[in-house]
């Protein structure tokens, strides 16, 4: 059984308040795009579930989200051990949700493989136990997210008339590091209002609150965003807590000269 786990970008991200549990309330738009990890699940050769990672030089840690996804369902259902092969292509520490997507896809694959008959909402509930971004990847369609990112509402947002360029600098930023530079505040206008504006106006109103602190600490990421605009981006932003930055361009735009900033992924039709 083979499946593809795609990435996401955040269109706008407002940090609204800090919660008593230490997490933050936020609002953001999750939007999927086609940069993929590849997952294969087969029957285990031994009486234990195992994980193999290729594509990137990553160690298999016991708390890897793919293994946690398996253990989550194993606690509830009598499922057999499996072997998970993850071919990693989405960079980590980029704000692209690769690990969360992998975990969500493992849940969906195990649900199908073992005939668990979990509904979409039931899968979302279990995905929320693994991480704030994980539930989004169950339905994997444009969503307005609230709370810590797990309260999801489908939105009508189609960007297929454009193409997306994503650049991942040689910098990885942990979520904890990103939050150290934010100052929560209630925005004047909700993203649900702002996202209805023409895409050409987003750059004036749709902001990512992580950018201020991260740009100060990593000037290269700020220069990358400016370079995307110089190349003709209609809208450019850091995705999530970074470090990847994406630009939305006219479909026929010719985009070059970004390789000096890091790994470039283009063109991608949204």
Description:
Belongs to the GHMP kinase family. IspE subfamily. Residues 64-138 form the GHMP kinase N-terminal domain. This is 4-diphosphocytidyl-2-C-methyl-D-erythritol kinase. It comes from Sphingobacterium wenxiniae. There is one protein chain. Helices cover 26% and strands 30% of the residues. The chain folds into 2 domains: 2-154, Ribosomal Protein S5, domain 2 (2-Layer Sandwich); 162-265, GHMP kinase, C-terminal domain (Alpha-Beta Plaits), CATH 3.30.70.890. The protein has helices at 65-74, 98-113, 120-128, 136-139, 175-179, 191-194, 202-205, 211-217, 219-230; strands at 2-18, 24-43, 50-54, 82-87, 143-146, 151-154, 162-168, 235-238, 245-250, 263-269. It is α+β, with helices and mostly antiparallel strands and 270 residues long. Strand 8 (235-238) and strand 9 form a beta hairpin.
Uncertain parts: none
State the end-to-end distance.
26 Å
The whole-number mean of residue pLDDT values reads 94
Specify the helix fraction band.
25-40%
Shape descriptor: globular
Q: In angstroms, what is the radius of gyration?
A: 19 Å
State the secondary-structure class.
alpha+beta
CATH C-level of the largest domain: Alpha Beta
Number of domains: 2
Counting H and I runs of at least 4 residues, what is the number of helices? 9
- The ordered string of helix (H) and strand (E) elements is EEEHEHHHEEEHHHHHEEE
> What is the name of the CATH topology of the largest domain?
Ribosomal Protein S5, domain 2
Give the name of the CATH architecture of the largest domain. Answer: 2-Layer Sandwich
Task: Summarize the biggest pleated sheet.
Answer: 6 strands, mixed
Q: Strand tally, please?
A: 10
Tell me the β content: 25-35%
Pathway: Isoprenoid biosynthesis; isopentenyl diphosphate biosynthesis via DXP pathway; isopentenyl diphosphate from 1-deoxy-D-xylulose 5-phosphate: step 3/6
EC number: 2.7.1.148
Function: Catalyzes the phosphorylation of the position 2 hydroxy group of 4-diphosphocytidyl-2C-methyl-D-erythritol.
Pfam families: GHMP_kinases_C (PF08544), GHMP_kinases_N (PF00288)
């Amino acid at each position: 059984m083979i499946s593809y786990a795609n990435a996401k970008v955040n269109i706008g991200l407002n940090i609204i308040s800090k919660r008593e549990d230490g997490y933050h309330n936020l609002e953001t738009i999750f939007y999927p795009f086609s940069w993929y990890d590849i997952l294969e699940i087969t029957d285990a050769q031994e009486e234990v579930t195992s994980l193999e990672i290729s594509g990137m030089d990553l160690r298999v840690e016991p708390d890897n989200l793919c293994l946690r996804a398996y253990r989550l369902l194993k606690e509830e259902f009598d499922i057999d051990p499996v072997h998970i092969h993850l071919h990693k292509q989405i960079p980590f520490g980029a704000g692209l949700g690769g690990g969360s997507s992998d975990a969500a896809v493992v849940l969906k694959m195990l649900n199908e493989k073992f005939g668990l008959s979990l509904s979409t909402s039931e899968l979302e509930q279990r995905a929320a136990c693994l991480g704030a971004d994980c539930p989004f990847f169950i339905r994997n369609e444009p969503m307005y997210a609230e709370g810590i990112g797990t309260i999801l509402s489908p939105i009508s947002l189609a960007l297929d008339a454009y193409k997306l360029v994503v650049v991942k600098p040689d910098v990885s930023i942990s979520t904890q590091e990103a939050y150290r530079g934010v100052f929560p505040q209630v925005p004047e206008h909700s993203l649900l209002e702002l996202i209805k504006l023409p895409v050409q106006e987003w750059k004036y109103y749709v902001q990512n609150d992580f950018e201020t602190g991260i740009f100060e600490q990593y000037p290269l990421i700020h220069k990358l965003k400016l370079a995307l605009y110089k190349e003709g981006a209609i809208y450019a932003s850091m995705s999530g807590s970074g470090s990847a930055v994406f630009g939305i361009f006219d479909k026929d735009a010719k985009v070059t000269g970004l390789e000096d900033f890091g790994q470039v992924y283009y063109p991608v039709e949204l």
